[in-house]
């Protein structure tokens, strides 16, 4: 299938070709014709699927045929949860509209409002905005919606997570009733469905990317390590793997700052990006990371959400997320556009609950590997270990002290390989989890398998990708 067959005109096709896209992605193939027909859309798609072009291209196509935009007016409004995503979407709009007469504008908080108000005097065919600043400018009369034709809610799930529901409701109240609505969300929770009910009419439902399919190009594994050893373990991975660029997720803003300092002190250039940083600092950190000036970007989930960095080779979960679905969003930053990516997680004993929840959500058991020199001391507490007898053919190594020991061994004992170079050049010991046995059930030794699941056995994931 080609972009030309989707009903786009030469001015837009040319801009698409300049981006080097030859074939529409599945979401584009489904969304572009539906939007051009004037239908409402409810799409389950996350960043990395090409969703931005999926709504931007047909919107530009439609707008290019309509009347010119008037002062302070907006013809298509794209709402995004974060400033970074707003800037990124606006950047896409500029690229795809460069051969048309259409204008665009981006507004978000954290920077001066005045230049944005001045800019809106000319009106904008496409306005990309975060909800809070949009309402501010609307209330001051700098933005008018009587010419509005299309509304896009991008990453609606994250907008709700970030508490934007009231702002969104206020915005919906001031928009013309007659309009086309496009709703994009990575997940469709009950809250999103409730929001969709009052928003989209008879929508075309598109679901192109169940998370466990998009992550197929991402090689994932975990390193069980002690909490205190995490910064040094990460530095080792970066240094020995000679990583040029990695996005590292921290659960907290404070943790992100601390880790950035640690890496900088080790001579590894790093920058942090999170909600306490000024907009200027966030933009600079992202630009430096993209240009290669800093090797490591340490981010919290909200700050990193939706950031598109081409061909990001490495994602690291320095802390596992509390919400298992966030794991999927995080690793979606790598393995983009056909390139293989790596997602490694440093998991300490305190995080086993989060680990098992993630494995249930992704329907996969993550491979455990031991990072040479960082073998964890912290074993799972005795109370959490399995007490069922487990059989093994032969023990591979003596049991370290303090482990649960029932006098028998695992049926498929865990392999302990010699250190080897992985795909990124880092030497690592692989301590892989045993393969599933013929019955589909699995067994493992709690003692040789940090972190096996809470009863020392590997659980069965609820879903398993084909
Ligand atoms: P998005 O999901 O909109 O954030 O897009 C993810 C990445 O895919 C961006 O870097 C786009 O430039 C790229 N992209 C979008 N559409 C295509 C396509 N049809 N072919 C190749 N790359 C694309």
Q: Descriptors for this entry?
A:
16 strands; 2 domains; disordered C terminus; 466 residues; 16 helices; Rossmann fold; alpha/beta
What does this structure look like?
By secondary structure, this protein is α/β, with parallel strands linked by helices. 33% of the residues lie in helices and 15% in strands. It has two domains: 3-207, 3-Layer(aba) Sandwich (Rossmann fold); 212-466, Rossmann fold. The strands form three sheets. A seven-stranded parallel β-sheet has the order 3-4-2-5-6-1-7, with helices on both faces. A seven-stranded parallel β-sheet has the order 10-11-9-12-13-8-14, sandwiched between helices. Strands 15-16 form a two-stranded antiparallel ribbon. A hairpin with a 5-residue loop joins strand 15 and strand 16 (427-428). The longest helix is centred in the first third of the chain and has 14 residues, at 83-96. 46% of the residues are buried. The structure holds adenosine monophosphate. Adenosine monophosphate binds next to helix 3.
């Amino acid at each position: 299938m080609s972009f030309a067959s989707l009903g786009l005109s030469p001015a837009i096709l040319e801009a698409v070709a300049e981006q080097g896209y030859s074939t529409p992605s599945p979401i584009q193939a489904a969304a572009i014709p539906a939007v051009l027909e004037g239908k409402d859309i409810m799409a389950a798609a996350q960043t990395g699927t090409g969703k931005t072009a999926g709504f931007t291209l047909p919107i530009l196509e439609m707008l290019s045929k309509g009347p010119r935009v008037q002062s302070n007016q907006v013809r298509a409004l794209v709402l995004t949860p974060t400033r970074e995503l707003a800037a990124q979407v606006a950047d896409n709009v500029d690229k795809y509209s460069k051969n048309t007469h259409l204008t665009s504008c981006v507004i978000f908080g954290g920077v001066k409002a005045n230049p944005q108000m001045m800019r809106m005097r000319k009106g904008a065919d496409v306005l990309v905005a975060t909800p809070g600043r949009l309402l501010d400018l609307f209330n001051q009369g700098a933005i008018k919606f009587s010419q509005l034709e299309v509304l896009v809610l991008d990453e609606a799930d994250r907008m709700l997570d970030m508490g934007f529901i009231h702002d969104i409701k206020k915005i919906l109240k001031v928009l013309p009733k007659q309009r086309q609505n496009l709703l994009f969300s990575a997940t469709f929770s009950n809250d999103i469905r409730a929001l969709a009910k009052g928003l989209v009419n008879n929508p075309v439902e598109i679901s192109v990317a169940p998370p466990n399919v998009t992550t197929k190009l991402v090689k994932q594994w975990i390193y069980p390590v002690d909490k205190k050893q995490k910064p040094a373990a990460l530095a080792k991975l970066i240094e020995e793997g000679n990583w040029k660029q990695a996005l590292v997720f921290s659960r907290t803003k404070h943790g992100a700052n601390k880790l950035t300092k640690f890496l900088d002190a080790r001579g590894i250039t790093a920058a942090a990006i999170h909600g306490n940083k000024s907009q200027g600092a966030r933009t600079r950190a992202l630009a430096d990371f993209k240009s290669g000036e800093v090797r490591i970007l340490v981010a919290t989930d909200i700050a990193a959400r939706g950031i598109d960095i081409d061909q990001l080779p490495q994602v690291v979960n320095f802390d596992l997320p509390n919400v298992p679905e966030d794991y999927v969003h995080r690793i979606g930053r790598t393995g983009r556009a056909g390139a293989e990516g790596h997602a490694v997680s440093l998991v300490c004993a305190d995080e086993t609950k989060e680990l098992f929840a993630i494995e249930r959500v992704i329907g996969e058991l993550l491979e455990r590997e031991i990072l040479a020199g960082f073998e964890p001391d912290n074993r799972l507490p005795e109370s959490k270990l399995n007490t069922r007898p487990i059989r093994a053919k032969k023990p591979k190594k003596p049991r370290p002290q303090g482990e649960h020991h029932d006098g028998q061994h695992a049926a498929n004992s865990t392999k302990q390989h010699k250190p080897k170079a992985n795909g990124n050049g880092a030497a690592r010991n692989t301590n892989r989890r045993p393969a599933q046995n013929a019955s589909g059930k699995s067994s493992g030794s709690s003692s040789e398998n940090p972190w096996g699941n809470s009863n020392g056995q590997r659980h069965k994931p609820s879903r398993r990708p084909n």
